[in-house]
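Section 5.1 Outputs to date
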Amino acid sequence: MRRAAFIYEDALSRHELRSDHPMRPVRLRYTYQLLQEYGAFDNPEAVLLDPRSATDQELTWLHTPEYVAAVKALGSGAGGVDGARFGFSGQGDNPVYPNMFEAATLSTGASLLAAEMVASGEVGAAFNISGGLHHAAAGNASGFCVFNDPALAVHYFLKRGMRVAYVDIDAHHGDGVQGAFYNDNRALTISVHESGRYLFPGTGAVAELGEGAGLGYSVNLPLYPYTADDDYIEAFSQVVPPLVRAFDPDVLVTQLGIDSYHSDPLTHLQVTTEGYIEAVRQLSALGLPWLAMGGGGYDVNAVARAWTLAYGVMLDTEWPDQLPAAFAQEHGAGRLRDQLSPEIPPDIKTDIRRHLGDMVAQIRQQIFPLHGLR
């Protein structure tokens, strides 16, 4: 058994980016409610913590002071700042909304608090479901992300002299985190995502290997659309655990987005809770101090179930499959785990397997030797 922290307070789920925006922070509250109904926080190894806000100084480990000031001004309604210059637009991915700075610094600070708990050894794992906002860059918002809390958490560990393996299983490429450490061999970044040929942000090819000292420390496994559990896990198993073990990090940082889910409205992957949680189990089995963050996920019912399962892995606890009555009644779902997998047409299945075989072969050829692997 290991102690596992869960960072949550209702303030994390109260804001709204825009009435029709697919990113719905209420999904965080649903996840917390489901875990609470399962009695997760009565577990003696569970540690429920309120978040704290990130400081301006912490934000500038990655973000420019000018950008931090712009987010603060825009969120407060102050005039004189051109939002478009910093990646914000009314009808785009990143609208300006009231108290945006406060909401973004709270979810970012929650990841930094989780990192502090893991680095100190107070817990063996910590989960901030409000984090995982992996697209934000040094000077602009991107892809629903204002501040890049995963990159800031990695910076925190690096500042303590720790080597970090970062694994991102969001359906979208973790471009902001990759970019932050592209020249750095102290951080191994691995992103398993739907190919950028078919999905935002259009990056994440195997050929993005890192540069300079970081050559071979940026790893990308791009997936073909409609990839389902069996092929997903086969490819994941061949790439992620061997590279993390070869790198031999001091800490594991993971982004556990569940927009890979088969009914997610924004992506094309066909993963179920079973494929998702098998990947989480493999990450847990690495046996490292572990900071986990949320990320994408736009089918809110699937988000709550998947992240509940993930926290169960951290606590080494299996929740009953029958959902608690109150949650099931409110959300119209009867079971925690999916019972069926999507049917993939044979011709698409052939394309998926061919694509994955090629991607894994490229990774083995171009990256494995740099880490002493065959």
